[in-house]
Write a structure and sequence with these properties.
four-stranded parallel sheet, alpha/beta, six-stranded antiparallel sheet, about 240 residues, 6 helices
Length: about 240
């Protein structure tokens, strides 16, 4: 992201924008001349290369931005950076500074920049910037895939928790079901051999009716394993 601004007019908004976007996407992905051009580097070459290698140019626009006579000077860097972006087919997004700045009007712009009046803009109020920075960041994350991948504020995917079930040496029917809030139930009929289902302790019920056995295991059990023996209709019940 290339931040375009005029020194003495858009400095504060440019700084806030750089800091907010850097925290979200990484400082290396945000270019602002004051902090991105190192001592000894030739700034004309560095500026133009940065524009050409950007996914979008964010132009800070104040209340008197369009009427500034420097915008009509071919050597003006604010003008040159925007025109270079258009020549390189880079998306240009006006960032309106403060609540009082109106959208750009073609009649107030130099002919070469009149297209800015037809471009959808975003707003940044330096006095209350948190929501504006969030909104700008959300838009950029949708616009630029690289930023979407680097987004540190993206919501994590829902995690229902892993489920591990092992049934070895089993003969008969194995049925597993998932209940509300990730509760896992496993029913194993006619099993022989060790059975592990879910996580944590296991509360096992085994009932024998006419020679058939069924094991009911819930993966969310807490506490130890208890056993109870008794006679019911001549059969053995284990819990």
């Amino acid at each position: 992201m290339f931040i375009n601004y005029r020194t003495g007019d858009g400095d504060e908004a440019a700084t806030i924008l750089e800091q907010g976007l850097s925290l979200r996407f990484g400082k290396e992905r945000i270019f602002r001349a004051t902090t991105s051009i190192q001592p000894g580097q030739a700034y004309p070459e560095r500026l133009l290369n940065a524009v050409c290698n950007s996914a979008a140019l964010l132009a800070i626009v104040g209340p008197d931005w369009a009427r500034d006579p420097r915008l009509r000077d071919e050597s003006d860097w604010v003008r040159r950076e925007i025109l270079e972006a258009y020549a390189s087919k880079i998306t240009v997004i006006p960032i309106l500074k403060g609540r009082g700045t109106e959208r750009l009007k073609a009649a107030e712009l130099p002919t070469e920049l009149e297209r800015l009046a037809d471009v959808q803009s975003l707003r940044l109020d330096p006095r209350d910037s948190e929501m504006d920075i969030r909104r700008i960041g959300d838009f950029l994350a949708e616009l630029v895939p690289v930023l979407r991948k680097a987004d540190r504020q993206a919501a994590p995917p829902p995690d229902t928790g892993p489920v591990y079930n092992t049934a070895r040496d089993t003969r008969g029917t194995v049925i597993q079901s998932r209940h509300v809030q990730g509760d896992v139930g496993t029913v194993i009929k006619g099993n022989q051999g060790p059975v592990h289902a879910g996580k944590g302790d296991i509360n096992q019920n085994t009932q024998h009716f006419s020679g058939d056995g069924a094991t009911y295991i819930h993966g969310d059990n807490h506490g130890g394993v208890g056993h109870r023996f008794g006679q019911a209709r001549g059969d053995e019940e284990e819990r």
